[in-house]
Amino acid sequence: MSIFKRIGQSIFNLKKRTIILSILFIVVSVFLISGAAIQNSLKKVMNETKNQVNPIISVELDLDALMKEMYGGESSSDKQNIDEELVKKISNSPYIKDFSVYSNAAVSTEFSSAESTNVPDQAPKGYITPTNDLSIFDSTNPDLAKTKIKVVEGKLPDDSDLENPIMVSEKYAKEYHLNVGDSLKLDLNSGFQEEKMKKEMNAKISGIYTLTEDNDPVYLKKEKETFYSTRKVLDDVKKIQIQDEEISSPIMNYEKVKVELKNPMDTDKFISEIKSGGGDFSSIKFNSTYGQYKTISNMIDKIMNIFSVLQLIIFVVAAVIVSLIMLLSLRERKYEIGLLLALGETKFKILLQMFLEVMTVLVVSFMIGFGISNFIVNPIATETINQEMQQTISDSKHEPMIQRGPNYVEDTSVKLGTEIQIQNQDKVQNMRVAGFIFLILLGIILCSTTIPTLRILKKSPKSILSSTE
After folding, report:
1. In sequence order, what are the residues at sequence separation of 6 or more whose Cβ sits closer than 8 angstroms to the Cβ of residue 139?
2. What is the spatial distance between Cα 425 and Cα 445, in angstroms, rounded to a whole number?
3. Residue 343 contacts by C-beta under 8 Å, 6 or more apart in sequence?
4. Which of 83, 212, 268, 398 can pair with 148 through a Cys bridge, CB separation 3.0 to 4.6 Å?
5. Domain range annotation of the chain
6. C-alpha to C-alpha distance for 415 and 290, rounded to whole angstroms
7. Is residue 58 scored above 60 in pLDDT?
8. How does pLDDT run across 145-169, given as a tens digit for each residue?
9. What's the pLDDT score for residue 420?
């Protein structure tokens, strides 16, 4: 009888062993193949997310936290504000490449004087409504600057030698026939006024600008009435506006500092450096795409670690179970092995028969497990993990306490550009991993069959057949 015929008969006759091994190999292959496929997909997601991380960090006031404190009656006087001292600390950081400070103040000019609204129940002299916004323009980097500006004439305020330099829009300059170098008197009165105090500042036009068409519609709508200047001018304006008023508010400082790092992976180091030296930073938040990447990365690492531990446990359990099954099976087949030896069959063919029997079961079971994994388990696992990732992202986002008004512009430079989820899996890579898993399982059955079989084959046919074990 040929060896292949004996293999077929053994697989068919030893039904109980065949069924147990088949179920074991199918379960093991499904878990291992699916686990490896999910791990590869998660690695791909993490790499794609990492590639989307940009070096921009937004250090800004947490307005929701400040509003919550205000409603709770808590004082924020001891909290860190975004002031000139913090800006200087940021500018001196070895991790930054460039930065830009955001702030604005309400002003009027002799060409567009403040409007007075009579509100007798609240203020005898009414409410002063300024007609222009004065903002900082620190950087020409589109990712850092609030708006994308094209200088039509003159210089940016930071590049000018003029005292209190102001840059006006081309529309404003044309309407009021203004040129670079002209004086511009700023009326700094705003808010409720018992009587209108003289709060003025003389400025000079350093440049004329126009906004590019790719700016947000909110900025384009306000282009004509928007001026730009330096931090020093903004500071002076705010000091004049709040003179004789006992006001201590973070709003009177800067609203935001956008930072471009040399390396986005230094985000945590930069934040730790800024927070070093103590201080209560609960009213300041650090927004960045790196923060979102880190949230996703931590979740993916946890999932991958769980899969790695499960895979190791499954390999060990599979090796132990297969070894026990083969050990018990070969004990019952000692008489068969002794007869084959007595009939002149070589030890190698007997050893090969024992191995090929289990390998045949493995090949068939592995193919079934591969199909179940790819067409049933993987799609379900992918959908579940995608939902978990979206839930994690949602949990990391805080719903704003303050409703955003029509002039609010969302800062997309500190948000990841695409949805974080497992897309199409790499079939070629999955095939390679499946092949690697098959080879490991093949190695397990090779050891679990050859070692106990060799122990039996060391004996003579007579001693094997006469054994009563």
Report:
1. 98, 99, 100, 145, 258
2. 30
3. none
4. 212
5. 3-52+295-466, 104-252
6. 9
7. yes
8. 989 999 999 999 999 999 999 999 9
9. 75
pLDDT tens digits for 440-452?
999 999 988 888 8
| Residue-level pLDDT at 203 | 95
Which residues does residue 211 pair with via DSSP β-bridges, in sequence order? 149
Q: Which residues contact 200 (CB under 8 A, 6 or more apart)?
A: 185, 186, 187, 188, 240
Interacting residues of 364 by C-beta distance below 8 A, sequence separation 6+ = 22
Coil/strand/helix, residue 265: helix
- CA distances from residue 226 to 12, 83, 140, 168 in whole angstroms, order as listed: 87, 23, 17, 7
* Assigned token pair, 113: 């004087």
What tokens appear for 167 in the block?
């840059």
User: What is the C-alpha separation between 290 and 267, in angstroms, rounded?
Assistant: 7
DSSP 91-119: HT-TTEEEEEEE-EEEEEESSSPPEEEEE
Beta carbons of 168 and 135 less than 8 angstroms apart: no
More confident of the two residues 245 and 142: 142
Helix (H) or strand (E) segment spanning residue 169: strand 165-169
Q: Which two tokens stand for residue 245?
A: 């008023």
49: phi then psi, degrees, rounded to nearest 5 = -65, -40
